[in-house]
UniProtKB/TrEMBL annotation:
Record-listed E.C. numbers: 2.1.1.-
Keyword ATP-binding: no
InterPro entries according to UniProt: Methyltransf_12, METTL2/6/8-like, SAM-dependent_MTases_sf
Its biological purpose: S-adenosyl-L-methionine-dependent methyltransferase that mediates N(3)-methylcytidine modification of residue 32 of the tRNA anticodon loop of tRNA(Ser), including tRNA(Ser)(UGA) and tRNA(Ser)(GCU). Interaction with SARS1/SerRS is required for N(3)-methylcytidine methylation.
Keywords, comma-separated and alphabetical: Cytoplasm, Methyltransferase, Nucleus, S-adenosyl-L-methionine, Transferase, tRNA processing
GO cellular component, one term: cytoplasm
Protein name (Swiss-Prot/TrEMBL): tRNA N(3)-cytidine methyltransferase
Pfam families named among the record's database cross-references: Methyltransf_12
GO biological process assignments: tRNA methylation
Regions of compositional bias (Basic and acidic residues) in chain numbering: 8-21
Catalytic activity of the protein: cytidine(32) in tRNA(Ser) + S-adenosyl-L-methionine = N(3)-methylcytidine(32) in tRNA(Ser) + S-adenosyl-L-homocysteine + H(+)
Nucleus as UniProt keyword: yes
Organism of this sequence: Gouania willdenowi
Similarity annotation: Belongs to the methyltransferase superfamily. METL family.
Amino acid sequence: MALLASENNKDVELSDPDQTKANRGTHPNCELQNSCSDHAVVSAFKQMKLEREAQKNWDLFYKRNTTNFFKDRHWTTREFEELHACRKSEKEQLVLLEAGCGVGNCLFPLLENDLNIFVYACDFSPRAVEFVKQNPVYCAERCCAFQCDLTTDDLRDNVPESSVDVVTLIFVLSAIHPDKMKQVLENISKVLKPGGIILFRDYGLHDHAMLRFKPGNKLGNNFYVRQDGTRSYFFSKEFLAELFEETGFQSVINEYVLRETVNKKEGLSVPRVFLQSKFTKLGHSQSS
Ligand SMILES: C[S@@+](CC[C@H](N)C(=O)[O-])C[C@H]1O[C@@H](n2cnc3c(N)ncnc32)[C@H](O)[C@@H]1O
């Protein structure tokens, strides 16, 4: 199944790469560069309210949608071979942090796929974390889910410093105000081993979801608010690379992934643009 859910706020990726036409490379919508940039932005007062209420808005999102909104992300092991390959032997346990785990659509396929991983999983929304803990696959020997605001709460309160091999950041950074993204990466960096890797996928610049925002939804450059108060940033390769490099990471791969999501029933086909990237944490000697 690959479709864009049709309700006004459901502009998330639900595509199964097996059933979408995939492509990679340069940005497809260069001619649309300015089409979304002319709208007046939402007032400073409303923007502050959205920032203050960000957690509440995500928690209400999960109250409304429970575990039924996002599809399980079975593609992660196919797209990110590091999820198996970065340990020296099969016997070695891989320690993962799933930052912004939602209700576990990435986490549980991973746990089912690989018996020898331990996953820390955190999210802003207490309700989402509760859904994770209630999942039948959840067990304390293999995962540890906790609530946290990645922009303010020190991850080391729940995850030992420099202990994590791989961090997954899947459609999470886009939900965070661009002024706070660097804090999130600094926070993650504290628990990641030197040489550890962040696997990233998120909305790319001029994705369909960005192009269909109406005037009145714009918060700033490439940053929009949905009707339910949750926000979404749309990343360019350059912006993302600079953000990570300023925070002590090195780019391994950073490319647009183009998908065509098809709803066969309704005969709809929608071009999507995602940014898929890998960054490694430089060791002390490398960063100085
Ligand atoms: C689009 S959902 C993606 C969820 C999950 N990664 C997935 O792939 O299904 C974005 C998630 O980011 C979480 N989030 C937003 N801001 C956050 C913050 N400051 N700290 C932690 N999580 C946050 C939201 O609660 C939400 O679950």
